[in-house]
Specification:
Length: 259
């Protein structure tokens, strides 16, 4: 790794606690280089000085590195499997499921979980933990205001039921909002809660190194209750789930093997 980027990684870790060495190098470096060049810097060293002296540059750095792309009902077929296969099995054993959306971005994912769960229980019995490293994304999630593009994959009946259109934006139902608690959490550093029945962690592991991914699978497995499920993104198949105490329950769903 070149010295300029290496030193940047050390500085950012000290300043923010974010460890860029656990993200795929070529991809991250490319994203950040194109940002600093656009801003008129000529090296990671200069870029870091800019970050230190201007909070706006810091925010742009965070925004570029976190990649918040998301939408409601992303990869709809998988949500159908959750609704029709995974949740009925989990609910047959236990009524109050402990659920975590582990890289929740601007909230579309945890709110989708809540809407689906509302088919099985009253909203006031639902409680979902949603976490992300990005505070700006968490604020947007708490506001719960979306543009039409975020809703493109949603069945129209759900849009009518759970959103109010105001001008060009869609406001999410207040009762749905109350079912999700948003917190800041760094998957690559912070400790995890335990005994989850469902952990949804989608479209973030792709950015991490193989080593970081392996560590995370172990931590997720430890955070699951027996028979609990890890639901990953549609390009994030786990090879050899057995080594983490997991087994395939359906494509992209892994069940914790009883310990
Ligand atoms: C592409 S979005 C995925 C959102 C949603 N899970 C989905 O599948 O639509 C990736 C999210 O991961 C978050 N993220 C990146 N690194 C993280 C880390 N170390 N800990 C927690 N969240 C992280 C980003 O802030 C971003 O909101």
């Amino acid at each position: 790794m070149d010295q300029d980027y290496l030193q940047f990684i050390v500085n950012i870790k000290q300043k923010t606690g974010i460890d860029l060495s656990l993200y795929k190098e070529a991809q991250m470096k490319r994203r950040l280089t194109s940002l600093y060049q656009k801003k008129g810097y000529s090296s990671f060293k200069d870029f870091y000085s800019g970050i230190l002296s201007d909070q706006k540059i810091m925010n742009e750095f965070l925004d570029r590195m976190t990649i918040n792309v998301t939408e409601f009902y992303r990869n709809g077929k998988r949500w159908e499997v959750l609704e029709n296969k995974i949740l009925p099995r989990l609910l047959a054993k236990k009524k109050n499921l402990k659920i975590w959306s582990a890289a929740s971005s601007t909230g579309e994912e945890p709110y989708t979980i809540s809407m689906i769960l509302s088919r099985y229980m009253p909203l006031n019995q639902i409680s979902i933990l949603a976490t992300d490293i990005d505070e700006q994304a968490l604020s947007a999630a708490k506001a719960g205001i979306y543009v039409e593009r975020s809703l493109a994959e949603m069945p129209p009946s759900m849009i009518t039921k759970f959103f109010k259109k105001e001008g060009t934006v869609y406001k999410i139902d207040e009762e749905i909002k109350k079912t999700v608690q948003f917190r800041k959490l760094n998957l690559l550093g912070d400790p995890f809660n335990k005994d989850f029945d469902l952990i949804v962690c989608r479209n973030v592991l792709i950015y991490f190194t193989e080593e970081a991914k392996g560590e995370l699978y172990k931590k997720f497995s430890n955070a699951l209750a027996d028979d609990g499920v890890l639901f990953v993104g549609s390009t994030e198949q786990i090879f050899n789930p057995g080594q983490y105490g997991l087994e395939v329950e359906d494509t992209f769903f892994y069940r914790k093997i009883k310990s």
